[in-house]
Amino acid sequence: MGKTVLVVDDSASVRQVVSIALKGAGYDVLVGTDGKDALQKLDGRRIHLIISDVNMPNMDGITFVTEAKKLPAYKFTPIIMLTTESQEDKKRQAQAAGAKAWVTKPFQPEQMLAAVSKLIAP
Asked: Where is the Response regulatory domain (predicted)?
């Protein structure tokens, strides 16, 4: 059984790059187009890791992480923030909300996969 990763980003090209890298590494991938859309995907199914953009329409990444962590099934799901933001206060907000790691765009797929493999329990 593959490990499932939920990728949340309003950019189709970012979703595609991340999805291709993850699938190539053997992960199953679900995608959300923004925080609101992604929350609907958190319907009780097993998700091993979430990768979320920070700046998105409808619901930004930090709000999404906060909401996801309120759901008992996803309280302990590791979350990686993927963003162009490198500001410390945004990082602190994301960590306070429950994010475990931070990958800055533009990123190398290998760099992202290394973060993923660290956080997904074997």
From this structure: 4-120
CB 48 within 8 A of CB 77: yes
What is the span of the domain harbouring residue 58? 4-119
Tell me how far apart the alpha carbons of residues 9 and 32 are, in angstroms, rounded to a whole number. 7
In this prediction, residues 113-117 reach a mean pLDDT of 94
Residue 17, pLDDT above cutoff 70: yes
- The reply to whether the predicted model has a pTM over 0.90 is yes
CATH number at 60 reads 3.40.50.2300
Number of domains in the chain: 1
CB contact at 8 A, 5 and 50: yes
Check whether 14 has a pLDDT greater than 90: yes
